[in-house]
């Protein structure tokens, strides 16, 4: 029976091969979500080894953060963009969990991230969540939580305003677009805790900044940031 199932699985894979979302090559039988080449050769930032990295400097003077991180560099037309597009718009939510696991293995090497109590994904408005079916940042958070031994908190930071897309907006317009968009539902639960705020891509950082401003109103809260990619 096991041999038959294996044969049928191999046959289906031959007719409908599963593709790597980054390079679109067919996955081999022992490859999970990403092909081996992409798994090891996508453009890692190694920001977990660089406390004063680009993302951390982006929030300097704006948010009092403990640490900041992005897993990959995002280049237009590159493999990371392909992967993020499949993740966000083509229903491949398992990519987020895979990338969260990869990122978590890096972050656990950094003692600052090792003290995280809660992981909070940037929330989608309920209308967009209904349309997409899942929050890509929450999928990434799931993978991170497995490695950081932290608790995912998805209902505390809430989006109270449905904003327009940030694409093609200037830095100032993005910041203006995110004003008074988020709120903390249960601040007592987060008081004195180390919170890791996560998103898919950081560009200007306006969304993360808006979330961070609300979170840092909680007494004693320490804030760190992690994303899948940093867009240069």
Automatic annotation (TrEMBL):
<comment type="similarity">
    <text>Belongs to the ComF/GntX family.</text>
</comment>
<dbReference type="InterPro" id="IPR029057">
    <property type="entry name" value="PRTase-like"/>
</dbReference>
<feature type="domain" description="Phosphoribosyltransferase">
    <location>
        <begin position="138"/>
        <end position="229"/>
    </location>
</feature>
<dbReference type="InterPro" id="IPR000836">
    <property type="entry name" value="PRTase_dom"/>
</dbReference>
<dbReference type="Pfam" id="PF00156">
    <property type="entry name" value="Pribosyltran"/>
</dbReference>
<protein>
    <submittedName>
        <fullName>ComF family protein</fullName>
    </submittedName>
</protein>
<dbReference type="InterPro" id="IPR051910">
    <property type="entry name" value="ComF/GntX_DNA_util-trans"/>
</dbReference>
